[in-house]
Design brief:
The chain is of the alpha/beta class. It has two domains: 272 residues, EreA/ChaN-like  fold; 119 residues. It is 40% helix and 14% strand. The chain contains 15 helices and eleven strands. The strands form two sheets. Strands 1, 2, 3, 4, 5, 6, 7, 8 and 11 form a nine-stranded mixed β-sheet that branches. It has a two-stranded antiparallel sheet with strand order 9-10. The C terminus is likely disordered.
Length: 425
């Protein structure tokens, strides 16, 4: 099966060996203000390192001033504080990453992110405070951490608002140990909506006065938004349909907009392909599902947003066999005939960057691999999303064989980082 099946010609395919070979992608970015970088799994070394290479060039050459990721706000705020050298932040990136506790910890507590944080720290050391690049989390899962963070902060800064935060925490507290709020809502045993809306309204009203710590206003506002949308997310989960997905991605766009409104005019986003590639170019649209890529294009316009996806034909990956299961290094089998990955593997050599003209064309939907944090290689055929590749992304990086991510555990005895960053930091 040839490239015509994807409506791709050889003119769109460019060998990719080092970050110098990203020039065509940089041209495609142009004056865009939001660049969203995907990944076909949450546990692949090459996806993280290439996103780092792209991010470095965007920051250095096009003045992008933050990276926002599919991660929890409180954890990522710790990375942000570290790379900006805020008072009270940990002394080492190892200490920062050691505090990542929520499963799957390997998504952000890995040596590839440690290497990127090192580069960002060195970059920021040459900048004034207002010019330093940030690192933020977009996701909605940190309900309990966000509640506790809010209470700790408000007790010192705003006792009146702290009492509202405590009311919200008391409502959720019975469900913390087993994360059972969704089940309680389904059985009409819980409803904390009133408390979280009260808290969100109060924080939004008072945000301008929270200036005693760096980025305190943004931190308070996002944590309260997480609490409000997490409640909505758990409620949607109890309905057993796709609405919880939409709540989550709408939350991530809301956080992106809040970050942008706080002086971060040019933003790099890291997330899974299923969030990045425009949902309208997949079968997600048939199930009334939206995602970050679609919402960003709709909100900011096609000229201001660039979407880049990733894929590979075979290799290895870090994942779990069930939610909360121990992480494992798993083999990724060769993609089946007729899939995006198989077509590219059969018609290209080596790692390639694909960039095509900005146009919406009629395309057949072809299976495109998506590996989550839970993975069963033996059920590989269930991991393919029907996709119009050229409409889903603006560019694509294909790597024939990929390797597993390096989860953060500890430094080697020699004190050196593992060989996770082939092009240097």
């Amino acid at each position: 099966m040839n490239l015509q099946k994807l409506k791709i010609t050889k003119d769109y395919i460019h060998p990719l060996h080092s970050k110098k070979d990203l020039d065509l992608f940089m041209e495609r970015v142009g004056d865009a203000e939001i660049v969203i970088l995907g990944e076909a799994s949450h546990g692949t070394h090459e996806y993280y390192t290439w996103r780092s290479q792209i991010s470095q060039r965007l920051i250095s050459e096009k003045n992008f001033n933050c990276i926002a990721v599919e991660g929890d706000w409180p954890d990522c705020m710790a990375i942000n504080n570290y790379i900006k050298d805020y008072s009270g932040s940990p002394d080492s990136v190892e200490e920062v990453l050691s505090n990542f506790k929520r499963w799957p910890t390997w998504m952000w507590a890995n040596w590839e992110v440690a290497a990127l944080a090192t580069w960002l720290t060195e970059h920021n050391d040459q900048k004034q405070t207002a010019e330093k690049v940030g690192f933020y989390g977009l996701d909605v899962y940190s309900l309990w951490d966000s509640l506790k963070t809010m209470i700790d902060y408000l007790e010192a800064e705003d006792p009146e608002a702290a009492s509202i935060a405590k009311d919200a925490y008391r409502c959720f507290e019975p469900y913390e140990s087993d994360d059972s709020y969704a089940s309680a809502v389904f059985h009409n045993r819980a409803n904390c909506r009133e408390q979280v809306i009260h808290l969100l309204s109060e924080i939004r009203r008072k945000t301008p006065q929270y200036n005693t710590q760096p980025e305190a206003g943004l931190n308070a506002e996002i944590n309260s938004l997480v609490i409000a949308n997490a409640e909505k997310y758990y409620k949607a989960m109890s309905d057993f349909n796709h609405s919880s997905w939409n709540v989550r991605d709408r939350h991530m766009i809301q956080v992106l907009e809040k970050i942008k409104s706080h002086g971060n005019k040019k933003i790099i986003v890291w997330a899974h392909n299923t969030h990045v590639g425009d949902a309208r170019a997949t079968d997600m649209a048939e199930n009334n599902m939206i995602n970050i890529g679609q919402l960003a294009r709709e909100q900011y316009g096609d000229e201001s947003v660039v979407l880049l996806g990733f894929g590979s034909y075979s290799g290895s990956v870090i994942a779990g066999s069930a939610w909360g299961a121990p992480m494992q290094k798993m083999d990724v089998p060769e993609s089946p005939t007729g899939t995006v990955e198989a077509i590219l593997n059969n018609n290209t050599e080596g790692t390639n960057l694909l960039v095509w003209p900005q146009e919406n064309i009629s395309l057949e939907k072809i299976g495109h691999r998506a590996i989550g944090v839970v993975y069963h290689p033996e059920n590989e055929r269930g991991n393919y999303v029907p996709t119009q590749l050229r409409n889903r992304y603006d560019a694509f990086i294909f790597i024939p064989h990929t390797t597993a991510l390096h989860p953060f555990i500890k430094r080697s005895r020699s004190g050196d980082m593992p060989d996770t960053y082939p092009f240097g930091i």
